[in-house]
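step=encode ok
step=design start
structure_in=
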């Protein structure tokens, strides 16, 4: 894996891999959507249970993307590696999109279940804070013209935001919240009805592969952009 920290080797390795991931994501999303609409409605929640197949994977990938951003920020600060900085930057927008989708679908799910679109619940509030960290990271990078300074400043913010991840994960255990606790992979067994496992796991895999495709594509685009900027700088100096 450390061999891939070289941008040239990274580009060579991910070149053929990226379209495969895009194709696999499309297949999994198609199968997952079909399974989600063909399973029976829940006896309590009715058809609104189908929101789970979008909401839970989106929330999971929102957390996962920020973990990727935070780890990449660590390598940016410690080793000052350009590829790590590119990886952190590339994770921000997809992660923010997944988190926004989780907040939106959570509201759609919460209104019929709780009778309200939003409450300042520990889980909901901590996910909103996660979304704000994403926005803050992108805004900070955009506000500083010097790319190296922008990368280091944003990396510090990215590391600070990691503190929020365990709060999001364990908020339903630490506080008395309206949000339900984890119903999948609970100690002993899954609290999810077996009939919903195939669409749930398929959509979770689809979102994971989709993020991988988005992330690698964004990193590759960022590497190309930096190469063009470097070339322009050299040409300007020669001129």
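sequence_out=
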């Amino acid at each position: 894996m450390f061999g891939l920290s070289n941008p040239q080797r990274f580009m060579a390795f991910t070149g053929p891999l990226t379209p495969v991931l895009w194709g696999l994501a499309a297949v999994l999303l198609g199968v997952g959507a079909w399974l989600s609409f063909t399973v029976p409605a829940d006896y309590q929640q009715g058809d609104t249970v189908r929101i789970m197949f979008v909401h839970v994977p989106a929330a999971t990938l929102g957390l996962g993307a920020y973990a990727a951003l935070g780890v990449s920020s660590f390598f940016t600060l410690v080793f000052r590696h350009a590829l790590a900085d590119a990886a952190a930057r590339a994770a921000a927008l997809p992660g923010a999109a997944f988190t926004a989708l989780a907040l939106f679908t959570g509201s759609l799910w919460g209104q019929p279940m709780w009778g309200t679109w939003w409450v300042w619940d520990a889980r909901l509030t901590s996910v909103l804070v996660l979304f704000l960290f994403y926005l803050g990271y992108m805004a900070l990078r955009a506000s500083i013209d010097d790319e190296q300074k922008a990368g280091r400043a944003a990396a510090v913010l990215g590391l600070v935001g990691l503190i929020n991840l365990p709060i999001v994960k364990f908020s339903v255990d630490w506080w008395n919240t309206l949000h339900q606790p984890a119903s999948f992979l609970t100690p002993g067994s899954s609290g999810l009805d077996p009939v919903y496992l195939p669409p749930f796991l398929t959509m979770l895999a689809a979102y994971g592969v989709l993020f991988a495709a988005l992330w690698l594509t964004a990193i590759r685009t960022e590497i190309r952009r930096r190469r063009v900027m470097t070339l322009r700088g050299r040409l300007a100096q020669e001129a």
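step=design ok
step=annotate ok -> The helical segments are 7-38, 52-79, 82-114, 122-143, 147-161, 164-174, 197-238.
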